[in-house]
Amino acid sequence: MFAKRTGQMKRTAVRELLKVAARPEIISFAGGLPAAELFPVSRVSDAVTRVLDHFGGMSLQYGETEGLAGLREWVATQFTKQQLGSRGRGVRAPMRPENVIITSGAQQALDLVGQVLLEEGDRVVVENPTYLALLSAWRPHGVEFVPVRSDANGMRVAELERAFGRHPKLIYLTPNFQNPQGTTLSFERRKQLLRFATECGAGIVEDNPYGDLRYSGESVPHLLTLETNRTFPGPRFDSSSESLATNPHSVIYIGSFSKVLMPGLRVGWVIAAPEVIEKLVQAKQSADLHTNSLGQHIVLDLLTQGYLEEFLPRLKETYRQRRDAMLEALERFFPRDVSWTRPDGGMFLMARLPSVDATALLPHALEQGVAYVPGEEFHLGGEGKNTMRLNFSNARPGQIQIGIERLGALVAENLGVPANSLRRRGQHAPGVH
Amino acid sequence: MFAKRTGQMKRTAVRELLKVAARPEIISFAGGLPAAELFPVSRVSDAVTRVLDHFGGMSLQYGETEGLAGLREWVATQFTKQQLGSRGRGVRAPMRPENVIITSGAQQALDLVGQVLLEEGDRVVVENPTYLALLSAWRPHGVEFVPVRSDANGMRVAELERAFGRHPKLIYLTPNFQNPQGTTLSFERRKQLLRFATECGAGIVEDNPYGDLRYSGESVPHLLTLETNRTFPGPRFDSSSESLATNPHSVIYIGSFSKVLMPGLRVGWVIAAPEVIEKLVQAKQSADLHTNSLGQHIVLDLLTQGYLEEFLPRLKETYRQRRDAMLEALERFFPRDVSWTRPDGGMFLMARLPSVDATALLPHALEQGVAYVPGEEFHLGGEGKNTMRLNFSNARPGQIQIGIERLGALVAENLGVPANSLRRRGQHAPGVH
Hints:
Chain A is α/β, with parallel strands linked by helices. Helices cover 40% and strands 13% of the residues of chain A.
């Protein structure tokens, strides 16, 4: 009865896990949830009042598939501002509303990009490990995933250059604070990656849901910014000359309000060449007609009121404290032989155990009231069995400390070493694996 | 660069049309828009306040892919109530939450059903004409559409029985107040269709966005109700015995709040066997993770407050007046040789011109400030060039009269007959074509 591709669809362990992890007595490092206690409930309430007063029933009516015009405009303008800010290079090609489609969250953006670009047998480069739901979205198209290892500086682009007989169609990556590792692709590697993509004619999908959540270190320009500056190497862009609106380019950028505002509104976006946006619009029309109107209006209202500038610093400070609490607790409570990544932002880090199977350990962790996602889930080629993804955004520092202490004791027990409650900080090499 | 299936995606004429038709000076019979002036703006405002007070940030957090538990429960219960009410047959198999997935509007339901069930070469029976966005959603799967003619009683099921060498995989239809014709499948034909589907092992997709918008005539049981009553022919259902939860069935029912509440929230649903729901959930997880949380909460709050019982009669009365205004105006202003359907509900009717190409006529109509959708758009096999779909839900009776008068004059001119402003009512045979 079902189509062949349906056999490729599976409930992921993450999904099943999340059900257990949702119990209030569990300290969960498993989900990818923002901190709901920070959501601006009264601001949303005010925004709804303003939206309904101003737009009335039209804010509840069918809308355009491309998305709310004002929101597309905001996304284009905001990206252009970031380009301007990026190492003072100036903007060669500002983004325009026709470079933007609003999607039902970044997940739909990924799904639509796959629908529009991928077909059976296409090779798709991904980091290993990579974002789980990307694999499930694109696997039904019958593509071949080509995993490339990552380290503390993100995807090892040099390995990618050596890896190919046949060229990839697409390269998918999360350059900033990757899910699951929290790592960031270095500036040098970004340039190297763009060179590689140009040489072999591959497209790049730059998935950037966490980019605005930086707690330390210096920001690195977007791949799309680097590419447009390279494609338009002349003096600062003159709006009467050619622009992205008339030039194809190979980077497809995906963004989201889920991590910087609220995920439940399901509002994300794609920035790409207008030819690509046009096809995404056609695919979206069949997928869900348009993104929910009220959610888009609420987001636009909050942005227009300057709420992001007010909220984002607060959010980042909270998450920074939680990240630091987790890093400190790992130092204190995890055995010496365990390493972990030290993200400059985002919501996740990844721990690597010397010899313990993290999937097998999980039921014991749940018994101790602690949840995480076994890293195996995110890996291709059967790797990563000894890794665990730890989310630090959705528990308070005190809880993080308790949870990591319990987890450390469990890991120590499984390694046959004493629980490490006295480990000195700084003994451990930076969490590269 | 694009996948082959992307070549199948096109901007539809309807889409491009809607842009022109949105101008305020145009009397538009083109869209499929509910009347935004009736949307309960202040009720939505109250609902948001209640939801945010009660659920706080959790109403803005990520949610379950299946949909809000309370909303799935409401959909299941409501359907069971309708089964109960349907010709006093009693309910053999009440629907349960595990029979329900909440989708981002009924369009996503259609898209997910296609993803999960259809593959290249599958035959799909559709009414001719049929819902346009169904064709664009399923065409990329490489299916073969088999059109079956319709008349005033809906799909001519007897023709379907004669049409097949190779069995269809799915039969798609809108049994109530079909888009674009407004016709309803008769009770006898529903039974006949179920027999046919059972014999050839085909699934039925029962798309019912307009079912609750009945203005005249007697309601006909859902195909899903008829099938479950047949599958469970024993005495009234005993909750301890087998149910749909343990029995596969072949009808996939699709519903929506877009037409009875507000479309901009993008909340629809599927009722089907749990095995089907499970696969739809997996596909939806990749498609957009979940339907927007706030929209689901608003809908559930309005339903819980009993708002549908209050609003629906008002909505139906308004639309009934508009339907009647259009039927009267057609009688008065359209030439004798034109026929049209006389829907008992919904939002559309279809007019059939004797020899005029409705697509070619459209630019002239727009010049006159009137918009409609050429019926050709909804037809397969190059048929329907002489038909126009007329929406009556989104213009007030006075505007409808003016618009139809202008359109009638234009049609008369093209037929070379005098404008028919004096035509007596009742001369014309019921609008069956």
